Predict the structure.
Amino acid sequence: MLELLEQSRILLSLASGLFGLLVGSFLNVVIHRLPIMLLAEWPETANPSSKSALSLAQPRSFCPHCHQTIAWYDNIPLFSFILLRAKCRHCHTNIHWRYPLVEALSAGLSMLCAWQFGYSLTLIAALLLSWSLIAQSFIDFEHMILPDQINLPVLWLGLLFSIADIFCDSHDSIIGAVTGYLSLWSVYQTFKFLTGKEGMGYGDFKLLAVLGAWLGWQQLPLIIMLASLLILRIGLTGGIGCGKSTVCDLFAGYEIGIIDADLIAREIVEPGQPALQQLSQHFGSQILQTNGSLNRVLLRQIIFKDEAARQSLNAIMHPLIYQEMALRINQVDSPYCIVAVPLLFETGYQDKFDRVLVIDCDRDTQIQRVSHRDQIDLQQIQAMIDSQFSRSRRLELADDIISNISSLQVLAEHVKKLHNSYIQLAKDRTPQA
């Protein structure tokens, strides 16, 4: 059998494609479960009352909506998706498009690698790199996370394969790994020293180190240039009542993509959504109204009286919100996008954005606006303000600031200036022909 694969490039490609389908099925498990496992370990997203034993191996695959275990005949890569007509056999909920896409992509790249490299050690190396990048890409796409659990083993594999001169020799691989890491690390540290703020996540320069180790230092400029083509992401935040929605509306007037975390938070707790089910399981059916929708007023009262309850709520909601947010960012076709996140600093996600815009006003103005808008008492408003980062801390961490204490006309002028600035920044990121 091995001799046939060695002699026939067609058979090798077909066998690699079939094996790639199986690997793609496992990659879907990694893409779905690894971020959940990581978020459960991080203090800012951990649910103190949750003791889930979720791993890559256990429990068996199950529907994320009805939680029914998936039988083996419903879990055949790609074919089961087609036979089931993209719906769960039990609850008939649509199966996420990512599952067949990852399986097909894994199979296609596996066949391409086999056709290109033939029966060789280079083929094994190319397959391992391709599969790891598929997992990394979809995790980053859905969660804006680049896990060390993938990055570091793949980095060491790249260095080991360089001993056999697979894609580059050891000299170029080692320099590539070091240069890839230090090039972004030095930018990160310089920016942090000058501004006191973090400009990117550690996963970014670890991934560049991985690519440098596999492909050699000579390919790093091309990789960085291609990465620069990604959309400019502006994180917009501010205290409650500072006018974030008004500023977003003004940016939307320039046909800029706006992604609102508050809107996403409302959408994912609609009846029938998994988030609402998780909330009702944790806080009890008391938080549901008679029509099955979320009783937001009651839930707000619960979390502002109980810090542990607030942490549990955040642990349930934040991962789902940021997952949906990442999906929508990748669908924007404007030169830059505005992502409004009220608790951007509190959740530690500011390093996922190229710049952070803070909408600012004084505390008295916040209280006046929230009281008029939401008709809630002063004590609750003050508790809400105090639960967020202080005004001085927000301003310290901001890249850009809009002071919203004057008229709408003045506010519009501030937005116009920043819009022009962001357009120029987006142009500067794109290599010119």
About this structure: Residues 264-318 form one domain. Residues 306 and 312 are 10 Å apart (CA to CA). The chain is about 60% helix and 5% strand. Strands lie at 232-238, 257-260, 336-340, 355-360, 400-403.
